[in-house]
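Troubleshooting: if your tokenizer reports a length mismatch, compare your output against this known-good record of 236 residues.
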Amino acid sequence: MGGTVEREFKMKKADALTILATLGVFGLALPTAHAASVTVTFDDLSTAGSDFGLASVPSAYDGLNWSCSGLAGGSCQAVNVQAYPFQPNGYQTAAVSGPNVLSTASDSANTLTISLTGGGHFSFNSVYMTPAWNDALNVTVVGLNGSTVVDTSKLVLTTAGVQTLETFDWNNVTSVTISPSGGTMHSGFFSAGAEELALDNLTYASTTPVPLPAAGWLLLAGLGGIGTLARKRRTV
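Known-good structure output:
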């Protein structure tokens, strides 16, 4: 009799450990769920009526908040590469999908900041980058979770007017900053050197927390049932 009780206690302990271990695995595997990827092209922003082919990017646009520190009020601007008059320039070859690209601004120390509209975490996947005026443009990209830096990439874009697809695949960030700086004016371009960066076809995906308490109860119920069946089989 004592041996039967001891074996049953060991089986219950093993079942409990199995459940806890499985929940631990699922706790790592199920914290977030990825929504479908979104590609931001800026092509639906109208530049009609602007002598320079420019349009303001709304602060909340295509699921993201947009802020550019180098422009008055922090708003970002879209540039119609066909209508922008100061040619030749790097904008002319920066568009991927249509006429518009995003410009970080014309001032030095300009930083683009994006975050999910309504808050929360997202994955920052990729973006096409093109220096508008300067060769050897430095670009620092930082991914943050709250105020904590979780990812950083430092790039040097060699030639103005040449597109580069930069892939990041950073997960669970709450904001991303993109800061161009330095470089020298590309020979033959219209303007004096400016630390402007053109961006197009930026891709991201929002991530949503999974209701782990409910998932935990379902796992406990299911695994508990499996443990009960296993004990019954052992005692038959």
